[in-house]
Amino acid sequence: MESFEASVVDSDADAIERSNEAALRPTSLDEFVGQRTVRDQLSLVLRAAVSRGATADHVLLSGPPGLGKTTLAMIVAGEMGATLRVSSGPAIQHAGDLAAILSSLDEGDVLFLDEIHRLARPAEEMLYLAMEDFRVDVVVGKGAGATSIPLSLPPFTIVGATTRAGLLPAPLRDRFGFTAHLDFYSDDELHSIVGRSAGKLGFEISGDAAAEIASRSRGTPRIANRLLRRVRDWAQVHGSGTGDLAAAQQALIVYEVDERGLDRLDRAVLRALCTRFGGGPVGLSTLAVSVGEESETVETVAEPFLVREGLMSRSPRGRIATADGWAHLGLEPPAGALPGAPGGRLFD
Ligand SMILES: Nc1ncnc2c1ncn2[C@@H]1O[C@H](COP(=O)(O)OP(=O)(O)OP(=O)(O)O)[C@@H](O)[C@H]1O
Ligand SMILES: [Mg+2]
User: Fold this and answer.
1) Are 109 and 73 in contact (CB under 8 A)?
2) Residue-wise pLDDT tens digits, 120-132
3) According to the model, what pLDDT value does residue 229 have?
4) Exactly one of 157, 162, 163, 179 is catalytic; which is it?
5) Which of 111, 216, 274, 290 has a 20 to 30 A CA-CA distance from 180?
6) Band of the pLDDT at 3, cuts 50, 70, 90?
7) Please, what is the average pLDDT of the chain?
8) Where is this region: Head domain (RuvB-H) (predicted)?
9) Minimal CA–CA distance to 151: which of 160, 159, 139, 163?
10) 3-state secondary structure of 49
11) What is the CA 83 to chain-centroid distance, rounded?
């Protein structure tokens, strides 16, 4: 059973979805689609380390949710033939938590620290020392009688992942020997991911259906895999059981994902902006009230994609619909509407 998803195109995943995803993860760099530069560079780092018989440099992976950071962390361990240990910033509340993890590492282990930007400060400082000198200072006792005992660690590799690279303090960022930023995927790359995932699910899908899913997946493999599962559901319940173009289109109508990957909230925001506020500029809170949502939801869930697609722009005076935004709703843009500004770079 899968959980109810508020939106089928949310780039975040809950626990149940993450367990579904495990089955679809590529397990080697060769199987990892797209991100060509990152793949080539990482492959070099790992192969060089293997040939020296050494552990690999620490690796930092950054980028938006659902683009493959966790997948790559697992691949690093796999390619190194190493044991993967997993923890995350929010799980490490105290320096002692980190000390316990670090002191239990064996030589060559890969420690994956997800959401590393959320590490507590004292843990962060302990991590500096561990990454650079393979050492932790364990504090024994309390108050005036506390002593710190240096403990040396066997060499290991940290793979850090973050959706917010900008929040990482420079001293931490600098301790990673290899840093990679993951970007959104092209439709062709997503097409190939959908094809591979369908194969793993034992679900037969046509090329045009896979392309249809790819083009509505917002550049994000997680969303592509999720839409694929929805299409499979539709095909099993209403269709022939195989994924043809009609099944893909019908399923995406049921889940209200339009041909550009916008969901209901995205369209409601865009429509309110155009029809109620004449295309703006209008303030975020006014816009949010008019669609009956929290400002934060509009700002963090709907806006980033609308701005990235060049359908909307953020200006110092408020939100503005671009000519592309009007056109996407089938409306005539007013004279003087901004042209589409992909990425919203016009003002950001
Ligand atoms: N390059 C890729 N090729 C094939 N599948 C991919 C690729 N990147 C991601 N996926 C698939 O997309 C899903 C999400 O990927 P992953 O969990 O690695 O994302 P993430 O960047 O760690 O996201 P988050 O920031 O939310 O933790 C997984 O099921 C994974 O198999
Ligand atoms: Mg992840």
Assistant:
1) no
2) 999 999 999 999 9
3) 95
4) 163
5) 216
6) very low
7) 91
8) 259-348
9) 139
10) helix
11) 24
Mean pLDDT of 107-129: 94
Residue type, 70: T
Q: Are 303 and 312 in contact, with CB atoms under 8 Å apart?
A: yes
The tokens describing 316, both together, are 């110092």
> CA–CA separation, 9 vs 259, rounded Å?
12
| Annotation: binding site for ATP | 24-25, 66, 69-71, 132-134, 175, 185, 222
- Distance of alpha carbon 63 from alpha carbon 52, whole angstroms: 30
pLDDT digits (tens, 9 = 90+) for 157-196: 999 999 998 899 999 999 999 999 999 999 999 999 999 9
Annotated active-site residue in 10, 57, 70, 157: 70
Residues flanking ligand 1, CB < 6 Å: 12-13, 21, 24-26, 32-35, 65-71, 163, 193, 221-222, 225
- Is the separation of the CB atoms in 324 and 339 below 8 Å? yes
* 177, two tokens: 């020997």
- Respond yes or no: is residue 147 known to be catalytic: no
The rounded distance, in Å, linking the Cα atoms of 137 and 149 is: 5
How far apart are alpha carbons 273 and 328 in whole angstroms?
13
Residue 318 — left, alpha, or beta (φ > 0 → left; ψ -120 to 50 → alpha)?
left
pTM of this prediction exceeds 0.85? yes
Residue whose tokens read 């997993």: 86
Closest residue by Cα to atom 13, ligand 1, is: 222
Q: Report the nearest-CA residue for atom 12 of ligand 1.
A: 222
Residue 240's pLDDT is 87
Statement: residue 2 has pLDDT above 60:
no
Q: Using one digit for the tens of pLDDT, what is the confidence trace for 276-323?
A: 999 989 999 999 999 999 999 999 889 999 999 999 999 999 999 999
Instruction: Please choose, from the candidates 183, 184, 164, 185, the residue with its C-alpha nearest in 3D space to the C-alpha of residue 173.
Output: 164
